[in-house]
Write a structure and sequence with these properties.
There is one protein chain. This protein is mainly β. It has one domain (about 1-205). Helix content is about 5%, strand content about 40%.
Length: about 210
């Protein structure tokens, strides 16, 4: 499997409120309000994730199928009955167990497979991504939340963060990312807007 690292567009952000579960086979997420995950000198540009303008994402190839992207964040299980955990994430994966709804786990990476997205929780254990939300550490985390939660994996649309990062004390709250969705055949023809909060909660707010 190919390995690429997600581009880090938002840097120097502090992740708050992460609480790990006391288990032996899935890594705990022990992040505090004092822990800064990225500094301003840790900016990485990945041209594979850009189109005609910096920061524009092609939803249908973000991330590319069967390509592993490293993450440095945590995920919260949001499925109504919890989140399905598997050993492996390919056609040979086996069911492990259900993680409790509301539980928080460290995420080391994400992979887009033919049947959906999976978050790497370590030890070859993979959480079905549609049953979780990803805390926003980088702008790409916000894009992933939109694509996964809104089922845009195969949609031929462009996504663009309107402010290039966090919006503070705006119309939709104290801190959020606002992302526009645009037609591929005519960039600038807006379809809808999404708002993504620091914990990964994502909402379609219309046009």
């Amino acid at each position: 499997m190919k390995h690429k690292r997600l581009a880090l567009f938002l840097t120097g952000l502090v992740l708050t409120g992460a609480v790990g579960l006391n288990t032996s086979d899935v890594a705990e997420a022990k992040l505090t309000t004092e822990e800064t995950l990225y500094s301003q000198n840790n900016h990485i540009d990945n041209p594979d994730l850009e189109t005609e303008n910096p920061g524009i994402v092609r939803a249908w190839e973000f991330p590319q199928v069967d390509t592993y992207y490293a993450l440095a964040s945590n995920v919260t299980v949001t499925g109504p009955f919890g989140g399905n955990l598997f050993n492996g994430n390919d056609n040979n994966k086996t069911y492990n167990r259900v993680l409790p709804k509301g539980s928080v786990w460290q995420a080391f990476g994400v992979t887009h497979r033919g049947d959906g997205y999976y978050y790497d929780l370590g030890g070859n254990q993979w959480l079905e991504a549609k049953q979780a939300k990803l805390a926003v550490v980088t702008l790409n985390d916000a894009y992933l939340n939109v694509i996964i939660s809104q089922n845009l994996a195969n949609a031929h649309v462009h996504l663009l963060a309107l402010n290039g990062g966090w919006i503070w004390n705006g119309y939709w709250g104290n801190q959020y990312v606002e992302i526009g969705q645009y037609h591929t055949y005519g960039f600038g023809i807006r379809e809808t807007f999404y708002v993504v909060y620091p914990d990964g909660s994502t909402y379609n707010i219309g046009q």
